[in-house]
Amino acid sequence: MRKLIAGNWKMNGQRADGTALAKTLAERARGSEAPDVDWLVCPPFTLLHLVAEQLSGSPVKLGAQDCHFEEKGAHTGDVAPGMLDDLCCSHVIVGHSERRQDHKESDELVQAKAEAARAHGITPILCIGETQEERDAGKAMDVLTRQLEGSLPAAGEGELVVAYEPVWAIGTGRTATAEDVREAHAHVRAQLKKAYGDTAGAQVRILYGGSVKPANAGELMATENVDGALVGGASLKADDFWEIGKAA
Ligand code: PEP
C-alpha cells in the first residue's frame, strides 16, 4: 500500500508561517525528487482556506483536525463536514487523544463524526491509542479493541484511515518500539477485518503517530501493517516532514 504521510499542525500557525510552510511543501511535492508517498497537511481551521490556495495544483492534500457530526445549525464554534468539503478537504482527523482529553469526546461521538465525514466524501482519520497507565496494566490491546468497536464507522461507502497513536508517545519525544507498533498494528488489522471482512479490512490504511521524526521514521515505516504516519511536531518544519516522507 502506498504510504500516507499526514501532518497534524494542531493549534499552531498564523497566516504568514502557515502559508510559507504549505508553499514549500507544495513546491517540493511537485518536483521530480518527490518520494512516492501521499502527502496530507491538517492545519487549524483558520488556515484551511489559505493553505488550500497554496496546495492548489500540487499533490499535497488538505485535511482538517475535527468536525461536527451534524450538517448545520446551532453549534457555536463547530465546523460541519460540508463546510470542510466546500474548502476542498479530502480528510479529517477525528477522535485525536487531545480532543478525547480536552473535550471529553466519547467513542460514540467519534463514530458519529467519522460517519458524517464519510457521508460528505471526506476520509476520516480515526485516532485510537492507549495511555501509559493502560499499557502498564497490560491492557493496551483491550483498549484498542474497545475504541475500535465503539468508534469505527458502519461498513459502507467511503474510505477510512485509522491512526494508532499511543497517548504516552504523543508530543513526548518517546516513540513506541518497532515491536510495540508491530503488535498494535497487527491487532488493529485483525479488528478491521473482523468489522469489515478480509478484503475491505486489508485496504484500510493504518498510520502510526507519536513522536515520529526523520531519525525513527525509516524503521517505523518499514514495520508490518504500518501504512504511513500521522506527524505532529515534526510536521511544522518543512525539512523534517519532508525527510519523514523520504524515509517512508
Ligand atoms: C499527533 O498529534 O498526532 C502526534 C503524533 O504528535 P507528535 O508527532 O508531536 O507526537
TrEMBL record:
Pathway the protein contributes to: Carbohydrate degradation; glycolysis; D-glyceraldehyde 3-phosphate from glycerone phosphate: step 1/1; Carbohydrate biosynthesis; gluconeogenesis; Carbohydrate metabolism; erythritol degradation
Keyword Membrane applies: no
Pfam families, per database record: TIM
Any GO CC annotation of this UniProt entry: cytosol
Enzyme Commission (EC) number: 5.3.1.1
Domain of life of the organism encoding this protein: Bacteria
GO terms (BP aspect): gluconeogenesis; glyceraldehyde-3-phosphate biosynthetic process; glycerol catabolic process; glycolytic process
PROSITE patterns cross-referenced by the UniProt entry: TIM_1, TIM_2
Keywords for this protein: Cytoplasm, Gluconeogenesis, Glycolysis, Isomerase
Active site: H96, E165
Positions of substrate binding: N8, W9, K10, G171, S211, G232, G233
GO molecular function ontology, one term from the record: triose-phosphate isomerase activity
Subcellular location: Cytoplasm
Catalysed reactions, as listed in the record: D-glyceraldehyde 3-phosphate = dihydroxyacetone phosphate; L-erythrulose 1-phosphate = D-erythrulose 4-phosphate
Family note: Belongs to the triosephosphate isomerase family.
The protein's assembly and partners: Homodimer.
Reported function: Involved in the gluconeogenesis. Catalyzes stereospecifically the conversion of dihydroxyacetone phosphate (DHAP) to D-glyceraldehyde-3-phosphate (G3P).
Stored PANTHER family: TRIOSEPHOSPHATE ISOMERASE
Protein name as catalogued: Triosephosphate isomerase
